[in-house]
Design a protein that fits this description.
This protein is an all-alpha fold and 282 residues long. Helix 2 (35-55) runs antiparallel to helix 3 and helix 8 (211-224) packs antiparallel against helix 9. The chain has eleven helices and two strands. 53% of the residues lie in helices and 2% in strands. The protein folds into three domains: 13-108, no CATH class; 116-206, no CATH class; 211-249, no CATH class. Strands 1-2 form a two-stranded antiparallel ribbon.
């Protein structure tokens, strides 16, 4: 029974590969003689086969979420390849680009996100889908590494991406995946300005520390959020609390000596170690 099932699965895979080969030759006949276009098609079909292999890969020894990490990475790579060919290198025509999107060789939704500021290297649409999280937030990979605490450089559970923030990915040319070569101390590397072999680290502004700075940062995030109008009162309360913290620290009186102790210290400095009248009477 198992042997027949294996033969059936192998037969379906061979049929799928043959179908893709026929579609490749049909597509090559429809494009011009431009070598860039032909190479783009060949690589697109190769990445599609790699995606099929990743889907059929056994999941033994992996956690449930880890089984989809490789699929997410290949999905990003093949969409990024088409995106850079059309928008960055201008190597393929609009007709070929539309055909690749229509045939699902690239994801039009994530490409549309890459064209927006702040999402230039987004790893997956799942990373910004707040419906999939317990607290209605984005994935941890969207938080820049230099803003994280020490040791918080783990991959996102849903995507396997450690960071797809533009600040770090702009230096490396893509997201930092769970299996990407990377510095041993990612947090320290990011706080040092993300230095590479070709470029020195970027200088970062010194950030204030303390409870009042954290409260002000949260209030600013609420005002920039989607429901900023509805959460204005909460932001005002956070700013008032931060002002109270800052004001109490500024208005705190300096430590000073008691008047009697101060007089006694002055007497000792003058060399007068004799007891006063009250001490003599006592």
């Amino acid at each position: 029974m198992g042997l027949s099932t294996d033969f059936a699965g192998s037969g379906r895979m061979l049929q799928a590969r043959a179908r893709d080969t026929r579609r490749l030759w049909d597509a090559l006949d429809n494009v011009s003689n431009d070598p860039e276009s032909r190479d783009a098609l060949r690589l697109a079909f190769t990445r599609r086969a790699a995606m099929r292999d990743a889907v059929n890969e056994p999941h033994e020894g992996k956690r449930r979420n880890e089984a989809t990490w490789k699929i997410t990475k290949i999905h990003w790579e093949r969409s990024r390849y088409v995106y850079e060919l059309y928008y960055k290198k201008k190597a393929i025509s609009r007709e070929l680009y539309d055909w690749l999107l229509q045939e699902k060789y690239a994801d039009a939704s994530i490409i549309a996100k890459w064209r927006k500021p702040g999402f230039e290297y987004l790893c997956s649409l799942m990373a910004i889908d707040k419906r999939n999280t317990n607290f209605g937030t984005t994935a941890i990979c969207r938080v820049p590494l230099h803003l994280r605490k020490a040791g918080a450089a783990q991959p996102a559970v849903s995507t396997g991406c450690i960071s797809c923030s533009s600040q770090e990915c702009g230096r490396l040319g893509g997201p930092i995946w769970w299996d990407s070569p990377r510095p041993a101390d990612l947090i320290g590397w990011a706080k040092a300005g993300c230095p590479t072999a070709e470029k020195p680290g970027k200088k970062r502004k010194a950030q204030e520390e303390g409870e009042e700075a954290e409260l002000e940062a949260r209030a600013a995030a609420l005002r920039r959020g989607v429901n900023a109008g509805l959460r204005a009162a909460e932001a005002d309360a956070l700013e008032a609390a931060a002002a109270a913290f800052r004001g109490s620290a500024e208005k705190a009186p300096p430590l000073r000596m008691h008047d009697g102790d101060e007089e006694q210290k002055e007497g000792n400095e003058d060399g007068n170690d004799e007891p006063n009248e009250a001490e003599q009477e006592g």
